[in-house]
Amino acid sequence: FCNIITDNKRLQMATKNRNNGAFEYKSMPMSFKGVDIKTGFVKGYLGAFGNIDHCRDKLMKGSAAKSIAERGPLGSKQIKYLKQHDRDFPLGSFNVLKEDSFGIYYEANILEEIEYAKDTLLLIDAGVYNEHSIGYSVIKSTFIQNPDDDRDWHFELNEIKLYEGSVVLWG
C-alpha cells in the first residue's frame, strides 16, 4: 500500500508531490477494543498517533480532526465503515468517531441483517479479523530528515481527509 523510497531523487520528488490528494491506506494491528456479538457493536482504533510505520509515515494528533468534524457521524456522515476497503461491502456506520490521546477512536454497529456483515462480525469475535486500516488522502504533510543520516527520514501527516475505516485481515 505504500512505496518505500530508496534513492534521493525519488525522495525529493515524493516530498514535493505528497500533498497531492492521492488515495492511500494506513493500517493498525490489534485494534479492536470491544465486540458484542449479540448487538453487532464494535469499538476500537482505526489508527494510532506518533509511531512511524513501514511507509515512513507518522500520523499526528489533530490530523483527522477537521475531516471527522466535517464528514463523520456528527457531520455529513461520509466516512464509511467497510470490509477490506471494498465499497461494495459496507458493514455499518460509525456512531462515534473522534481523536483521543492515543489515536482515531470509533464505535460502530455492524448490520447483522446483511449476511456478509454478520459473517464478518463472527470473524472479528473469533480473532480472525483483528486489524483496521484507514482510507485517506494527505492534505498537509511535513518531510522530516535527520541531517546526519540521509536514510533516516519520515513524513508527519499533519492533515488528512478520511474517507473510510476498514476491518482488514492485515495491513
Mean pLDDT: 86
Helix content: 10-25%
Distance between the terminal alpha carbons, to the nearest Å?
Answer: 8 Å
**Structural class determined from secondary elements:** alpha+beta
The description of the largest β-sheet is:
9 strands, mixed
Low-pLDDT parts are none
Could you say which overall geometry the principal axes of the C-alpha atoms support?
A: globular
Number of strands: 9
Strand content: over 45%
Tell me the series of helices and strands, N- to C-terminal.
Answer: HEEEEHEEEHEE
Rg from alpha-carbon coordinates: 17 Å
The count of helical stretches stands at: 3
Description of the structure:
The protein is an alpha+beta fold. 16% of the residues lie in helices and 47% in strands. The protein has 3 helices and 9 strands. It has helices at 8-17, 65-71, 115-125, and strands at residues 23-29, 32-36, 41-48, 57-59, 80-83, 86-99, 103-110, 131-145, 153-168. Strands 1, 2, 3, 4, 5, 6, 7, 8 and 9 form a 9-stranded mixed β-sheet that branches. The radius of gyration is 17 Å and the shape is globular. The model has no long low-confidence stretch (mean pLDDT 86).
